[in-house]
Each structure stands twice: as structure tokens, then as C-alpha cells.
Amino acid sequence: MRRPALPLDGLRRPRRRLLPLVALLALVLLAGCSAPGSLTMDPVTDAGIVRHASRQVDRTGSGADQPEATTIRSAIENGSATVESPSPPVREGKPFEHEGGFYDLTWTVVGERTETSVSLLVDYNATDPEGERVAYEDLPAADRRAVDALLPPRDGRRVEGYELGASTRYDDTELARSVLVSDRPTVVVFEGEAYPVKFDGTSEFTVHTYRYTATTVAGSRDEYARDLRDEYLFTLDGLSDAERAVVESAIEDNYYAEDDDEAFRSVLEAFRRHEAVASEEAHGEWLVRYEGEVYWADLWYDGFDVADASGATSGSGRERTAQG
């Protein structure tokens, strides 16, 4: 199954490409027989257009998305935000909706530094282990942070010897103070149990300082929907019976193309004559009117080589997995 690549050319307002994050989920849900292309068309109101063409800032304030959500909110509320990370913490793509407005985020690298990643192994199955014993509470802060990834055991799996590893970032000061970064065996006493912890080497990586800048795309849902309609909406008409069958199947459920499917290819070419709201290699999302109804069209064409306006071709020749 081919997963779409995430472009890193910045977040922009209409007339520029918006990344379809929902397409990632669609790929996971599709299963069964393979197809070189597919089309779905969902009827949409203005509210549906906005939902398809934007992202929500995580409102939980906790969990795995917290750093990303914090960066997004800070950039939007303050105009910009700076954050350190090995890679951009905010995935680029569709504008974010926040308190009724819509905002693009762009980033630049304004600094970098090198940090060290420390790898540790733990033995959950040892009895009366040998080595210098140290209570978890007495470990330096960086060592406790590293042990938190290993202890307590997450499941009942047990094997002989060291069985699980984890890597943790250390700065130079933390490395110098570490008890665990040592050639000597160390036994960590955690919640009354003794666990041998073994230093398994280090590696270096670069931490970038990213400055995110927020730009207003639209001040309201109505404005954003109107901009998208004005910029991207086109009418799909003049279809042959075979092409109409493709479109109507896509509206009813999904249409999965066959090899050398000329009707699908013709529909694909009709879409590609118009600018997509969201696009990447072998995939695009369009806002289209068909027989008086407005639809959000999601079109994949991995198995079809199609030339764009410059004469370059797209389509990987790979097949997608489809229900069937």
C-alpha cells in the first residue's frame, strides 16, 4: 500500500496546495483487492467544505499531540513561536481553525545544535542481579527520564537476558552526571524490584530551532468557504455515458479503476484540467459541481501516468488497495 508523502513546501492559503490529512486515514481503511486508481465524491455544504480544507488545533492540551498543539496555539495567538526539535514538530498542510479564524503556519530554521542519544537495555527476568545498586529516586534527572521509558514493565513478556531498549536525549551536562552511562553494570531498584540496566551506546543528532509564523487565511468559516468556492469550484459536465457511470459510482459509494480504464482516465484528465484544493503525487482533492450539486472529490491515480501542464508525468505505477 502506498502512503502519500508529506510535502514540506509550506502552508498557504487558497490557490496553493493543501495537504489532505484525511487521505492518510483513508489509506488505512482501504483493504481487499488492488486498484490502480479510485474516486470518491461526497456532497458538501459550506460547513463540509471548511471541514475538508482545514485542521483543528488539538484541544485536549495533553498526550502525544501536546507539543504540536502548544506550538500551533502559540504561533496563532502571538504571531510566531519558537520551538526546538530534531524535525518540524508541526506537520505542514491545511490551515488550522482556531477560535473562528483560519491560519497557515510556515517555518524557518533559525538555529541548530548537536545532542546525544543514549541507548539503554533492561533485563526484566534477572534474579539476584549483580552490579552497583541505585534507587530510582537517587538517579540524576536525565537517568530517571531514561528509566521511565523502561520501567515499570509494560507487559508480561519475559526472555532471558536484556530484552528491551530505549533511547533518550542527554545534553553534555547530563552525560557527565549520568550514573547509567557507564561500562559498569548498574542495577536500578524500582518500586522494590531490582532491574539490571545496561548502557548500549550513544549516537549524535541535530536539534533544530524552528520559528513558526502564523498568517491569517480567513477571519470566519463563511469567508473561508466563500474563498474556496471562488478559487476552486468548477463544473463537471459534457461526460460520455461511460464517464458518467464512473462519476455516479463515485457518488453512490466509491469507484475503483481497472487497468487501462479509459473512462476513469478521461474523468481523471477532466479533473486535472482544474486546480486541486489539495494535491500531491498521484493524488488530489477537488471542489466540483455535478448536476447542480457540490461535491468534495478525492481522486487517486497511482496506476495512471498523467502529464501535467508542464509535460511532466505523475503516477507511480503502483496499485492501491481497495475494498472488493
Outline of this structure?
With 324 residues, the chain is of the alpha+beta class. It has eight helices and 18 strands.
Q: Which features does this protein show?
A:
single chain, about 325 residues, alpha+beta, 2 domains, eight-stranded mixed β-sheet, six-stranded mixed β-sheet, 18 strands, about 25% helix, disordered C terminus
What do you see in this structure?
The protein folds into two domains: 160 residues, no CATH class; 148 residues, no CATH class. The chain starts with 21 loop residues before the first helix and ends with a strand. Strands 3, 4, 5, 6, 7, 8, 9 and 10 form an eight-stranded mixed sheet that branches. Strands 2, 11, 12, 13, 14 and 15 form a six-stranded mixed sheet that branches. The protein is elongated. It is 24% helix and 35% strand. The chain is an alpha+beta fold and 324 residues long.
What secondary-structure arrangement, pairings included, does this model have?
Blueprint: H1 22-29, E1 34-35, E2 38-43, H2 46-52, E3 55-56, H3 66-78, E4 80-85, E5 96-98, E6 101-122, E7 132-135, H4 141-148, E8 164-170, H5 172-177, E9 186-190, E10 193-218, H6 221-232, E11 234-235, H7 241-252, E12 255-256, H8 262-272, E13 278-280, E14 283-290, E15 293-300, E16 306-307, E17 313-314, E18 320-321
Parallel strand pairs: 3-5, 7-9, 11-14
Antiparallel strand pairs: 1-18, 2-12, 2-15, 4-10, 5-6, 6-8, 6-10, 9-10, 13-14, 14-15, 16-17
